[in-house]
Amino acid sequence: MNAEVAQLGARSVTARAYGKINVFLSVGPQRADGYHDLVSVFQTLDLAETITLSPAAETAVTLTGPRADTTVPLDDRNLAVQAVAALSEATETHIPVAITIDKQVPVAGGMGGGSADAAAALVAYAELIGCDDADLLTRIAAELGADVPFALTGGTAIGTGRGDELVPVAGSGAFHWVLATSVASLSTPEVYRTLDELRRETSTATDDTLRDPDDVVTALTAGDPHALAGVLHNDMTDAAIELLPGIAEVMESGRQAGALAALVSGSGPTVGFLVADPTHALDLTVLLEATRGVRDVVRTTAPAGGAHLVTG
Ligand code: C5P
Questions:
Q1: CATH for the 175-302 domain, from 1.25.40.10, 3.20.20.70, 3.30.450.20, 3.30.70.890
Q2: Is pLDDT of 1 > 50?
Q3: What is the ipTM of this complex?
Q4: Where is the GHMP kinase C-terminal domain (predicted)?
Q5: To bridge 19 with a disulfide, which of 9, 47, 54, 281 should be the other Cys (CB 3.0-4.6 Å)?
Q6: Which residue owns the Cα nearest ligand 1 atom 2?
Q7: Which amino acids are annotated as binding site, given as ranges?
Q8: Mean pLDDT of the chain
Q9: Which of these ranges, 70-74, 191-195, 201-205, 267-271, has the smallest mean pLDDT?
């Protein structure tokens, strides 16, 4: 054990961050850096990733919780590992940590679980080393991934640029969602590529003009699920269905079972169903659990908060 680790003793730090749903996602053309300009309205979901960092002889990752999944990398491809490495580099505090990730967010579902891991790891490592430079955390978050800054701030926000230039939205009330995860997974870059191809190939595909999120913001501000259901939007929908046609069937099943609206979550393949209240959520859960292609059904609410320390 090096001197810094010995000084910290056995102290461990826990932080939490949340998954997200994009209630509005308008994707523009691809930029020179490979990313796409977009306009997104995000809400965090009450599905937490809880990260505990404990000083150790070397960095290692352990997964626990209901959605611990063997496909999550445990090496330096893991976003929590990258977050610790980036903040350790920037602050020149090289303290190896054992990282425990308690997962509630479905893996590879377009719900920002990896980004939440990165955000929680940044907050936990900053606490461990006594760093209170919020601007540094925000800067590192944006370097780690387009969705990490939102996982850090949480709540409800409009994201522009790559999705990482955020303006908070004052939402009200809680929205009830039922999420149907898929037995299949989709790669985010591949969904973006497919969207570009569809736009090139077909004149019927949505064009790449960025749309205005005003109606969505109005519905969120009013806390009105019926109004929100009418204006949910995701430009990635056709591309996700092109790669995984079963998504369309899952969306249809949920609509027929009384969901107010169905929405592909981010780049998919998770489908989110907006429902009026917890009773409808329960009814829909039972039906979706019996639907082909659905792996797991999760009931949750939005918005949740941003990344924060967990004490005690
Ligand atoms: O930033 P992050 O690693 O989450 O993005 C994953 C991939 O998604 C990027 O490498 C890029 O292919 C695609 N992406 C994009 N435009 C965005 C966000 C992500 O093309 N605004």
A1: 3.30.70.890
A2: no
A3: 0.95
A4: 219-281
A5: 47
A6: 145
A7: 106-116
A8: 93
A9: 201-205
Residue 36 and residue 161 in contact, taking contact as beta carbons nearer than 8 Å: no
Pinpoint the residues of the chain covered by CATH 3.30.70.890: 175-302
Q: Annotated binding residues for ATP, as ranges?
A: 106-116
Respond yes or no: is residue 20 known to be catalytic: yes
Gap from CA of 131 to ligand 1 centroid (Å): 28
Per-residue pLDDT reduced to its tens digit, 122-177? 999 999 999 999 999 999 999 999 999 999 999 999 999 999 999 999 978 899 99
Task: Read off the pLDDT of residues 215-271 as tens digits, 9 standing for 90 and up.
Answer: 999 999 999 999 999 999 999 999 999 999 999 999 999 999 999 999 999 999 999
Residue-level pLDDT at 65: 87
Pocket of ligand 1 (CB under 6 A): 34-36, 38, 145-147, 162-163, 188-189, 192
Confidence of residue 106 (pLDDT cuts 50, 70, 90): confident
Distance 4 CA to ligand 1 centre (A): 36
Helices (H), the chain: 3-8, 79-91, 113-129, 134-144, 148-153, 188-201, 214-222, 225-231, 237-243, 246-256, 278-289
Architecture of domain 3-169: 2-Layer Sandwich (3.30)
What does R_g of the chain's alpha carbons equal in angstroms? 19
Q: What is the chain's percent helix, strand, coil content, to nearest 5?
A: 35, 30, 35
CA distance linking residue 105 with residue 96, whole number of Å = 26
> 127's torsion region: left (phi>0), alpha (psi -120 to 50) or beta?
alpha
**Pairing relation of β-strands 97-103 and 60-64?**
parallel
